[in-house]
Design goal:
5-stranded antiparallel β-sheet, about 45% helix, 6 helices, alpha+beta, globular, single chain
Length: about 150
């Protein structure tokens, strides 16, 4: 994997067990589904604050079923985050959107690689929100299968 900020759509490219699976539909006790998308757990952690805004019970290590209409609200909020990031905000303002205690990269590490990380994070958000919009047209739920 070139960047930690990558949405993987090909199951063969998933390198280890430290991935979050986002699966169309309700939980069915199956993991590693071909129709799912995958994120390195550290990358998906950047969505933690936004997901918790709409799903307060969300825990990264658990299975979480989320209704499609809630995902569309999350998607809109992630698009707002991407727009905010594109303005190259000062690090202090990022704390409103990103809980650095939940991600592996520390505040200082993110700041050191800020331009690169912001570009890659925006790209990942764009890919994920497009996928969410498409899946929400045919599914009532999308499930997060935590690490």
């Amino acid at each position: 994997m070139e960047s930690p900020f990558e949405m993987i759509t090909d199951l063969d490219k998933v390198e280890n067990a430290y991935y979050v699976e986002v699966k169309p539909g309700e939980y069915n006790a199956k993991y590693w589904n071909k129709e799912s998308v995958y994120f390195a757990d550290e990358a998906f952690s950047y969505f933690y604050t936004t997901i918790c805004k709409y799903v307060p019970q969300y825990q990264p290590t658990e299975v979480t079923e989320i209704k499609a209409e809630t995902w569309l609200r999350i998607s809109n909020q992630l698009q707002e985050l991407a727009h905010f990031l594109s303005s190259n905000p000062p690090m202090i303002k990022l704390k409103k959107w990103i809980d650095f205690s939940k991600v592996e990269e520390t505040y200082k590490q993110f700041d050191r690689h800020k331009n690169k990380y912001i570009r890659e994070l925006i790209n990942m958000i764009d890919q994920f929100t497009a996928w969410l919009t498409k899946v929400c047209q045919t599914q009532s739920y999308i499930t997060i299968l935590g690490t």
